[in-house]
Amino acid sequence: MTDIRIYVEETPGQRREIIGPTDMGLSLMELLKASDYPIQATCGGMALCATCHVEVLAGPSLPEPGDDELDMLETLPVQHEGSRLSCQIRLTPNTDGLVVRIAG
Ligand code: FES
After folding, report:
1. Measured from the CB, is residue 65 less than 6 Å from ligand 1?
2. What pLDDT, in 10s, does the model give residues 30-83?
3. Cβ of residue 48 lying under 6 Å from some atom of ligand 1
4. 51: Cβ below 6 Å to ligand 1?
5. Residue 75: which domain range?
6. Which of 58, 62, 98, 104 has the most other CB atoms within 10 Å of its CB?
7. What is the pLDDT at residue 1?
8. Residue of 39, 70, 85 best suited for mutating to test ligand 1, as the one with most atoms within 8 Å of CB
9. 43 CB under 6 A from ligand 1?
10. Of the candidates 6, 1, 86, which has an alpha carbon nearest to the alpha carbon of residue 38?
């Protein structure tokens, strides 16, 4: 089992490290929810609600967002350069060290 580290910027300059497994097919949204962040994820991870919006601040480069994700991101009132839907980001060894901020 391989665990990875994700850093959540809670206030500017202050990051909390959370650890997630890569062998359970979890998304970043699921890890954030399990870590008690207030993410509603009303669509259950289908890229349909955008309540799991995060801003990627630093870390490894991620696979490009798919069309569903891009369409949903476009509906957000506020978008950031690193805006992503955390339900569309899988925890894999390649996401180790990702730094995110919960948007909205
Ligand atoms: S959980 Fe609904 S878009 Fe991610």
Report:
1. no
2. 999 999 999 999 999 999 999 999 999 999 999 999 999 999 999 999 999 999
3. yes
4. yes
5. 3-102
6. 98
7. 65
8. 85
9. yes
10. 86
Report the atom number in ligand 1 closest to the C-alpha of 45: 1
Number of residues in the chain? 104
How far apart, in Å, do the first and last CA atoms of the chain sit? 33
Return the CATH number at 36.
Answer: 3.10.20.30
What's the gap in Å between 40 CA and the centre of ligand 1? 8
Question: DSSP class of residue 94?
Answer: G
- At residue 72, the pLDDT reads 97
Q: Say whether pTM exceeds 0.85.
A: yes
According to the model, what pLDDT value does residue 12 have?
93
Q: Among all chains, which residue has been given the structure tokens 């890569």?
A: 22
| Per-residue H/E/C for 52-92 | CEEEEEECCCCCCCCHHHHHHHHCCCCCCCCEEEHHHCECC
The total domain count for the chain is 1
